[in-house]
Amino acid sequence: AQSVAQPEDQVNVAEGNPLTVKCTYSVSGNPYLFWYVQYPNRGLQFLLKYITGDNLVKGSYGFEAEFNKSQTSFHLKKPSALVSDSALYFCAVRDSVYSSASKIIFGSGTRLSIRP
Amino acid sequence: EPEVTQTPSHQVTQMGQEVILRCVPISNHLYFYWYRQILGQKVEFLVSFYNNEISEKSEIFDDQFSVERPDGSNFTLKIRSTKLEDSAMYFCAGTLGSTDTQYFGPGTRLTVL
Fold this sequence. Notes:
The complex is a heterodimer of chains A (about 120) and B (about 110). Chain A contains no helices and twelve strands. Chain A is mostly beta strands and about 120 residues long. Chain A is globular and about 45 Å long. The relative contact order of chain A is 0.33. Chain B has strands spanning about 5, 10-15, 20-25, 30-35, 45-50, 55, 65-70, 75-80, 90-95, 105, 110. In chain B, strands 2, 4, 5, 6, 9, 10 and 11 form a seven-stranded mixed sheet that branches. With about 110 residues, chain B is mainly β. The interface of A and B includes residues 43, 45, 90, 95 and 101 of A.
């Protein structure tokens, strides 16, 4: 079965510093990977995805993620953090690339806190 | 930019009552989903829906749950007899095709007393 792990419950970064939010995955077959962000009392907003192609994927709000097949990782990064980036971040994997209505499996989430 | 909408934003109900949560997906989406997030926990899949049929459901989605797309625009989740443990945020999502991103609504917070 597909699974996603986010090893850090919380990441604290000073504003202006680079940030990394870690994610590792386990899939059978080719992975479809996603990052979503959840602001307080809001829904899940799509940030970026990897399906195929370039291992470095660029997304919304200056975020990017690097797909590493050998390490089965898909870490989220941003070169310079903003206080407004503080939120809950979810890594996710599509359950099956063969099923059209395939569900997404979410990691447990990482709370990112950016201090001024 | 089109958005998924959900109503109500917050629903409070008594245990044993029926609730219907409503979603209006993006108009050209074909595949629909419900997920839930119990406070402080991860987002969990409930059910997927395509071509007016359930495609897949999780073990959470028992006989108390049902979904419907009654009029080609709304997508509803019904809980027949709510339990305390049904208290959660419920998210609707949709996607156009098999490799497309799932776009989520803002959620309905269900509180069962």
